[in-house]
Amino acid sequence: MSGTLTFLHTSPAHIPTFDALLAAEGRGEITARHLVDEGLLAEACTHGAATPSVLRRAVAILLRAADGGAAAVLCTCSSIGEAADIADTRTDVPVLR
């Protein structure tokens, strides 16, 4: 894979981890782009699950990333992983959880 791999995180703490994983795999041809929305997880935790509002917001972010030139998009938060499944059906760019 070459190109841009866009990550959606719910905490900036995950950025170094995923950058290190790409570096360890020797994936220098992949450009990592990190998007962070801490509010998604905060709202899901407040309500005990990803609400329809959280899922709509996350899907919108994932689709913007896909439309923004990503070769693939990865949602790194299992609490909002369902949004990746939804977004994946709405674009030709792979959206993964």
What tags apply to this protein structure?
97 residues, alpha/beta, 4-stranded parallel β-sheet, 4 strands, globular
Largest sheet: 4 strands, parallel
Find the structural class using helix and strand composition: alpha/beta
Q: What is the end-to-end distance?
A: 17 Å
Listing every helix as H and every strand as E from the N terminus to the C terminus, the arrangement reads EHEHHEHE
Radius of gyration, whole Å: 13 Å
Strand content: 15-25%
- How do the strands line up in the largest sheet? 2-1-3-4
Question: Which parts are unreliable, with pLDDT below 50 for 5 consecutive residues or more?
Answer: none
Mass-distribution shape: globular
Overall residue-averaged pLDDT value = 94
Number of strands: 4
Q: How large is the count of helical segments? A: 4
Estimate the helix proportion, in percent. 40-55%
Describe the structure.
This protein is of the alpha/beta class. The protein has helices spanning 15-24, 38-47, 52-67, 81-88; strands at 3-9, 30-36, 72-75, 95-96. It contains four helices and four strands; from the N terminus they run βαβααβαβ. A four-stranded parallel sheet has the order 2-1-3-4, sandwiched between helices. The protein is globular and about 40 Å long.
Fold topology:
Elements: E1 3-9, H1 15-24, E2 30-36, H2 38-47, H3 52-67, E3 72-75, H4 81-88, E4 95-96
Parallel strand pairs: 1-2, 1-3, 3-4
Helix pairs in contact: 2-3, 3-4
